[in-house]
Design goal:
It is a single chain. The protein is α/β, with parallel strands linked by helices. The protein is about 30% helix and about 25% strand. It is built from 16 helices and 25 strands. The strands form five sheets. Strands 2-1-11-10-12-13-14-15-16 form a nine-stranded mixed β-sheet, with helices on both faces. Strands 7-6-5-3-4-8-9 form a seven-stranded mixed β-sheet, with helices on both faces. A four-stranded antiparallel β-sheet has the order 17-18-19-20, with no helix packed on it. Helix 1 crosses helix 9 and helix 4 packs across helix 5. The radius of gyration is 23 Å and the shape is globular. The structure holds adenosine monophosphate.
Amino acid sequence: MLGQMMQQPLLISLLLRHAQRHHADTEVVSRRVEGDMHRCSYAELATRAQRLANALQLLGVQPGDRVSTLAWNGYRHLELYYAVSGAGAVLHTLNPRLHAEQVAWIINHAQDRVLCFDLDLLPLVQAVAPQLTSVQHFVLMSDEAHMPVATSLPGLLCYETLLQAAEPRFDWPVFDENTAAALCYTSGTTGHPKGVLYSHRSTVLHALAGALPDSNHCAATDVILPVVPMFHVNAWGLPYIACLVGAKLVLPGPRLDGESLYTLMEAEGVTLASGVPTLWQGLLKHVRAQGLRFSSLRRTGIGGSACPPAMIRAFQDGYGVEVMHGWGMTETSPMVTTGRFKARHAALDADARVALQARQGRVIFGADMKVVDEQGRELPWDGRSAGELMVRGPWVVQRYLGAEEDALVDGWFPTGDVATIDADGYMNITDRSKDVIKSGGEWISSIDIENIAAGHPAVEMAACIARPDAKWGERPLLVVVPKAGVPVDGETLLRHFEGRVARWCVPDDVVFVEAIPVGPTGKMLKRRLREALLGPGSA
Ligand code: AMP
């Protein structure tokens, strides 16, 4: 027997409509790339999103078409979030920190039809444009006053002019909630980046779960500052969560140094700010150096890399700001676990509470997890048995864009993270089986670095490993076996990377060794290398 409740698909347009009808005058405040501040209400944002949906339709964007963005956190990016997905097209957020070659590869793979970008990213777009095979329109996300006098981009369009010319009313279509809504590529694993295609249903369910008290604990009284970029896993869902709960949203633009963030937080009364540990290092350093206090900040969401216990203490003991440490991936929308307490933890002493928060935490309803050994057998929840972390849930990827097969093993997604789970269901990441380095919240492929190094005539063999770093979490270290009789120094090798990868991906240092340990299949044993060079426990 079927239930007899209304059939209302879970669509992203519902979130915007809710904010428009029930939180019409709540503000969205942005620090613009142009340098000034911009304020609007959800009612105004919704009208502009409707104009944008009409404008995109006039450009020929059809349901299912990909519209990409190269943009920082700002209101125009937010309008694109809602207009593109709301109209049934797919919002493809691109990472401007990637090398131009990689950006071009991703755009071509996704077959993006329209590319919208922030003013300061014009040089990057001009550099990638000649390699693009599918883009029909380039849209500069600014007004006429900021349009370039000359550009190599064919028929460059102005975002504000498009909006002005479009009708302010657009009826958001109703369609299957499983329709694709947004696309984000992850370069977190080796080989080419892989596209994760979120659906309306997965996005709305993730937003509902992400607003819960043991997730982000969001309410209409909150002022939310996503420092995590809107190009990285939809800023952890916060742009959707803000509309869902009717919270004020503060969007910081490209300037994320400690002073800029602190000033913005104080000026706008931010209560919740979320981002990767590296950014909070900068903020804490600034606040400490200037002897400042937070007058409104109550909570920080920290994830993307492990949050050091010292940072948890600094926020909580030093400034009365509660830390919510979470774990997730591009493939999981991203939120799966948070290190939040259970009732009985109230009895723990201060150190034990911080130790618990430093773990990646327990699952949010909807998702599930397990750890397995090399044969795929589930390991006990004893806090000691470490194995690959597997996750599942309605906002976890099933298949990468364009892949022939599902990415699952027995219905679970293998994360490439190695973890333990304790008897209370708290997960703790202990290692990573994927061959990557995470620096300041963004990935560096060690394979890419090794391939470039191997292309140098003086290199016999090269391995790139992660060296722990106080500021960036990890930094790449290049380990090289030089070719006999071909003298080379570290500086020369590092210069070889110029123009071949983004500057921040170039290794910090080169270590020369006589041999790199390899396993029976010829695979480099990086774990052993890390331990030999960086000391026990570094792996
Ligand atoms: P991304 O897809 O770029 O968001 O990266 C996801 C990966 O970042 C995970 O698979 C982990 O390796 C790492 N990661 C994310 N959150 C945490 C965390 N809280 N602690 C440790 N590693 C994390």
